């Protein structure tokens, strides 16, 4: 066993005295401490890769729905804006409507509040357009000759200059339908408005669900960090015993929370990317059937960063909750 | 000069029992003192008060004139860095090597890595474990684990060393070796307070002995003038 000289050589000669400050200053020491904790956290997470992966998956799934909802809302806004310009009505006159009636209707429509422009399509123009757009114009031409007269009515395309609600458009439509010489009024935005109403409903339900899922993500991080605290309770108590500050004892667990949150964010990004990739083709096909084309927007670097930040925030919130709940962890061992 | 002082300290637990009952004592700086008594006599309670893990119900626990129970959460860590604590069950971290266990008190003080390495090597050399730094605690014998615990307690060269049954798991030979180490630390200026129920071991150490019974200080035997070890 060591003798006196050895003790002196071992401790005194090695300057193992308290009160010495690190030569590199507090900042370097602070970075060194964070670097060590980050390294310990990586080791802790990698040693429990399967359970860490499950935590990332749970947090990721909880983040995916709000992320998708945000993308859906962004695209719905773009879609609405694109269709806003073509919002309006088409007024079909009766075949027997006289030119006077048609002129009166055009004047009336131009007087209507909110009407940007009125485009008259005469029966001859309608027929000409139909023949142009038809794949088999010769057959159509023969059919028209057989009928003997133009079966197409005069019509007005009414373009509105503001985003009227469906109800207002419907009231205008009813009013116009009651006019003499009018055969039918078609609101072009009908399906879109209904879609918009459904979309509003879905957004509200989605927002509520998103909040619940974000809370679930915090709870997942909380439970995981809580387990980490329990598994390192002995270490915490030893650290308290040897004089670690509360911040030093909290730090590893805040890093765990960050690792779980950011890992969950990365998982969410991957899940969202896969989901968007899977729906892109059928969505394009659906929109094409409505003669609409749209690019899915929102999956931008800013969005990815936001998902990571939200994940990090939720992870840290869960860790803080666990530390708050396990407040007595810093008591020295008995 | 008295470094450690207890002034009419009573510690009453929630169940009404008294862990300590009106205990007053003072311990000089640089001295080595034994605290003895049966299990439940109040030895551990007294040590816990000295490290600030428990507060007295009445009375004051003073270290260098400062009341330990009045230290706030910010001050307590800095106080504990001046106290080396050795426990019967070592409390070593099983997933860290011997080197890392001993380095813990230095790492929390933000000491540069090369200084930590030098000091840990010095502390391990002191307890004759220079070649065991890379091993994990489970690879060591009970006596070696106890010496690692001592190395961790003294690596920071604390002003005060508190040991709670440090020889409880050791055979007589190893127990004497551990006591020899405490004497050496005391000779270097540390104030050493060792709680032990092994009266046969401590009576030959030539130190002052405080005898606790049912929470009360019933006997205070001064060190003989010619202390023999």
Task: Give a brief outline of the structure.
Chain A has 334 residues and is α+β, with helices and mostly antiparallel strands.
Overview of the structural elements:
The complex is a heterodimer of chains A (334) and B (229). Chain A is of the alpha+beta class and 334 residues long. Chain A is built from 11 helices and 4 strands, in the order αααβαβααβαβαααα. Chain A has helices at residues 4-12, 25-47, 49-84, 99-111, 123-133, 137-147, 166-177, 190-231, 233-241, 246-289, 301-325; strands spanning 88-93, 115-121, 155-160, 182-187. In chain A, 26% of the residues are buried. Chain B has one domain (2-221): P-loop containing nucleotide triphosphate hydrolases (Rossmann fold), CATH 3.40.50. Chain B has helices at 43-50, 75-80, 98-107, 113-126, 142-154, 172-187, 199-202, and strands at 2-12, 18-28, 32-36, 58-63, 66-67, 83-87, 160-164, 191-195, 208-213, 216-221. In chain B, strands 6-7-8-3-9-10 form a 6-stranded mixed β-sheet, with helices on both faces. A 4-stranded antiparallel β-sheet of chain B has the order 2-1-4-5, covered by helices on one side. The two termini of chain B are 24 Å apart. Chains A and B meet through helix 1, helix 2 and helix 9 of A and helix 2, strand 6, helix 3, helix 4 and helix 6 of B.
């Amino acid at each position: 066993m060591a003798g006196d000289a050895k003790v002196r050589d071992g401790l005194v000669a090695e300057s193992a005295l308290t009160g010495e400050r690190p030569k590199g200053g507090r900042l370097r020491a602070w970075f060194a401490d964070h670097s060590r904790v980050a390294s310990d956290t990586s080791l802790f997470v990698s040693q429990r890769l399967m359970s860490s992966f499950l935590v990332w998956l749970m947090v990721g799934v909880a983040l995916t729905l709000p992320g998708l909802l945000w993308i859906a809302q962004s695209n719905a806004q773009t879609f609405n804006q694109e269709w806003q310009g073509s919002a309006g009505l088409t007024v079909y006159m009766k075949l027997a409507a006289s030119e006077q009636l048609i002129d009166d209707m055009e004047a009336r429509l131009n007087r209507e509040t909110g009407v940007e422009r009125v485009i008259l399509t005469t029966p001859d123009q309608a027929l000409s357009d139909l023949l142009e757009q038809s794949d088999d114009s010769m057959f159509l031409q023969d059919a028209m000759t057989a009928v003997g007269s133009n079966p197409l009515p005069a019509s007005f395309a009414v373009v509105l200059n503001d985003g009227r609600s469906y109800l207002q458009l419907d009231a205008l439509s009813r009013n116009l339908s009651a006019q003499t010489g009018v055969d039918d009024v078609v609101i072009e935005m009908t399906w879109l408005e209904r879609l918009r109403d459904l979309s509003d409903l879905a957004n509200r339900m989605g927002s509520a669900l998103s909040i619940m899922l974000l809370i679930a993500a915090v709870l997942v991080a909380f439970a995981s960090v809580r387990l980490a605290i329990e598994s390192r309770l002995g270490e915490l108590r030893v650290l308290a015993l040897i004089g670690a500050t509360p911040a030093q004892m909290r730090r590893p667990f805040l890093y765990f929370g960050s690792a779980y949150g950011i890992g969950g964010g990365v998982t969410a990004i991957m899940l969202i990317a896969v989901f968007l990739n899977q729906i892109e083709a059928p969505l394009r096909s659906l929109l094409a059937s409505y003669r609409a084309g749209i690019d899915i927007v929102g999956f931008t670097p800013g969005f990815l960063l936001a998902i990571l930040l939200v994940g990090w925030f939720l992870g840290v919130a869960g860790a803080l909750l666990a530390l708050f709940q396990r407040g007595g962890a810093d008591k020295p061992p008995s | 000069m008295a470094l450690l002082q207890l002034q009419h300290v009573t510690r009453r637990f929630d169940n009404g029992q008294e862990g300590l009952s009106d205990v007053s004592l003072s311990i000089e700086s640089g001295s080595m003192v034994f605290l003895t008594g049966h299990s439940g006599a109040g030895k551990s309670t007294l040590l816990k008060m000295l490290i600030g893990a428990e507060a007295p119900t009445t009375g004051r626990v003073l270290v260098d004139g400062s009341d330990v129970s009045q230290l706030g959460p910010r001050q307590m860590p800095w106080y504990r860095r001046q106290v080396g604590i050795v426990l019967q069950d070592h409390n070593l971290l099983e997933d860290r090597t011997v080197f890392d266990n001993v380095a813990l008190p230095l790492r929390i003080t933000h000491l540069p890595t090369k200084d930590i390495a030098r000091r840990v090597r010095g502390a391990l050399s002191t307890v004759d474990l220079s070649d065991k730094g890379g091993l994990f605690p489970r690879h060591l014998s009970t006596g070696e684990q106890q010496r690692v615990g001592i190395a961790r307690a003294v690596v920071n060269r604390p002003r005060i060393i508190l040991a709670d049954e440090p020889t409880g798991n050791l055979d007589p030979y190893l127990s004497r070796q551990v006591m020899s180490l405490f004497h050496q630390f005391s000779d270097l200026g540390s104030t050493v307070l060792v709680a032990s129920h092994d009266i046969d071991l401590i009576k030959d150490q030539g130190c002052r002995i405080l005898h606790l019974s049912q929470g009360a200080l019933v006997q205070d035997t001064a060190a003989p003038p010619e202390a023999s070890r």
